[in-house]
Structure formats: C-alpha cells, structure tokens
C-alpha cells in the first residue's frame, strides 16, 4: 500500500510540475488577451445570470446552468481546499489561488463559448455539449474528445463524489458524532433521489441550494474577518510576500517559496473554480441561450464568485486567524480541514455549526453537479445505455467514500484534474480564432440570435438498448 501511495504522490508532482502550471496560467493569460479582457464585463455577466432567455433553445435556464456549475465548484475546495493549500504551500498559495481565479474568468468564458457553439441536440430533445463535442466538431479530433470524456468520467468519482462525501463524513463524525457508514448511506440515498431525474432535477435543486449555502458561508467568513480586523492588513502583506519568497510570519506561518506556493495555489485554484478543466461548460451547453457569448459570460461569473470572492475570503479568514491566535501550533495541525475548523471556532457557539453545515451543503451540491458531468461524458463514450449503470456506480462510491483516506483521495483528484484539463485546454487554444470571432460578433449585441441551427444527434440505437 505504501508503494502505491508513493507512486500516486510522485505522479501528482509530475503532472502538476512547471509544464502544467505554465499551460494553465498561460491559457488564462492568452484567453484574457484574445477576449479583450473579458473580466471587464463581469458586471454585465452577473446581470445576465439572473435574466431568463426563454426564447432560446435549451433544457434549463441560464441561471439553472450556472447554479449547476456553481454547485460543483463551490464545494470543499473553497473550505478544506484553501486550508490544504495554506498547510502545504504556505500563505502565499492564497495569492496564486486568487490570481488563478481572476485570469481564469477568461478561460471559463472561452471554454463555455465553444461548448455552446458546438453543442448538439439528441433525438429526444436533450442538449449535449462540452470539450468533447468542441474537439470533435470544431477540430475533427474525436479521439481527443474521447480521452477528455474518459478522464472526466473517472474524475467525477474522485473530485465530484469521493472527496466530497469523505469531507461530509469527517465533519459529521467529528462534530456531530454520526457514524461514517451512516453518513455515506444518507448521502447516497439523497443523491439517488435527485440524479435519476437528469439535468432538470439537478438544476432545480441547485437553483435553490446554491444561493442559500453561499450566503450562509460568506456571512460566517465576514463575522470572522470582523473579529480578526486588526490582522487583516498584516495578513494581506504576509500572503503577498510569502507568495514569492520563503520566510515566516506571526502564528507560526511559513512559506516555502514561489514553487510550493504556485503548485498548491494553482492546483487548489483549479480544483475550486475548475477554469480550464472543461467541467462547467458541460452544464453551460444545456442552457437556454440565444447565442454562445451570452451563456459564456454567465458561466464566467462562476469563477468570479467561487475564487475571486469565496476562496479569497476563506484564505483571509485562515491567515488572520492563525496570526491572531498564537496558541495555534501550525506544526501540529494535521491537514487543511483542521486548520479551517480552528478558524471557525472563533465564532462563539455557532461557529463550528456554520462550518459543519457549510461543508455538508457545499459538498452535497458538488456531488450533484459532478454526477451530471459524469453522465454526459459516459454517454459520449458509451451511449445512453450506460447512464443507469453509471448512476448506480456513482451512488455506490458515495456510500463507501467515508472509509477512504482523505489525503490520498485529494491527490488522486488533483491528478485527474490535470489529465482532463489538458485536452480541454488544447480545444480552447486551437479554437481561439473562433472564440475571438464569436466575441466580436456578439459582445456588443448580446440580444442577437445565432442563426446557426443546433444539429440533431441520432441516439436511436442507444434508446433501443
């Protein structure tokens, strides 16, 4: 077992070395330039996200697609993930995580644009899209689309299910005394109730759950930042300084230099907002939208809320808490989850409960969102006949996830993130001329209807099966 763990850790270090970091951040910067700094349109994008576009084709509303995507991104990556980044990479990782989000807005916009542009409609009226269809229809590279779908389907069991249920089980057992096997069974049961209803059922639940859980958690962070107000500016200075050089700060905080901070900051940033991974565009492709740019802007707000706002607040909460409470011995903290728990303990009486219910809601919503991503990728590879077996296996993984070692699961999730991000980033970069053309065409006329018909995908063989 030790040999396997060592191999997985070495593989994680390999896929998340400098080449991957350069590819990811480089794509973020290239897309920022190609889209003319699309981040400047974030205000317009937020307005569009709460505007219905019922005149257009699609299965769910623009907000429903966004909520489904946010459900999968606003998860344990925002809470435990940021804590893990600080624990392993030092406070400087927070800056790289945040910058990954700022520039990642452009990549999320770009990958969602091509997902909508190259989407197809099944014979039973369902919208299908994502990196696999962009690679197949936009670049005639179906083989690479199959590779993306293969890795994404497997990733759904790790990043989307096992890590999330494991996190739920950990907080429920430590704070509420609930046995892990019971937590796994409960999550599996409630997941089954939703995912068998498809995207409409998933988006309906996410539309109600996401705004509530995000507001609930952000208010908790705001209270802690008020409590730690005197350490806010020193924390910001520490984060920026330790992002580039090794050193130490108050509360036992240390930074190992730019490579460590970059590694864990970028890795957790991608895990958190999924910009460049190709997952969220799968939900974007199902949206009712009159042109690709309109939904691409809406999708881009997901990265803004997830990383630029929520992850930044979490990072500041953790760093200010450690600097304020000198009794926290950072060398004795076992993992990022414990670090986050100690920070929320500062809110008398209700602090631990805010964290507990925040993790439960965040993680459960991620389980739902990733179930949809996995379904679409499995259907792309194997056809509609594979959906029921996939759903059953997904539920089984949810049931047994609490007994899996969390650190190992996080590492495997990191590896799968990188492996599915590579073909998606290839699609984004090679289709950048299309992205620029579509942006120029619609960015100043967002109400314009696309005159391109959505092709119908024949699924009669899978339906019979």
UniProtKB/TrEMBL annotation:
It is found in: Cell membrane. It is a multi-pass membrane protein. One of its GO terms (molecular function) is amino acid:sodium symporter activity. Belongs to the alanine or glycine:cation symporter (AGCS) (TC 2.A.25) family. GO terms for cellular component: plasma membrane. Pfam families: Na_Ala_symp. Keywords: Cell membrane, Membrane, Symport, Transmembrane, Transmembrane helix, Transport. The chain crosses the membrane at residues 16-38, 143-169, 181-202, 214-236, 248-267, 304-323, 349-372, 392-412, 418-436. This is Sodium:alanine symporter family protein. The keyword Protease does not apply.
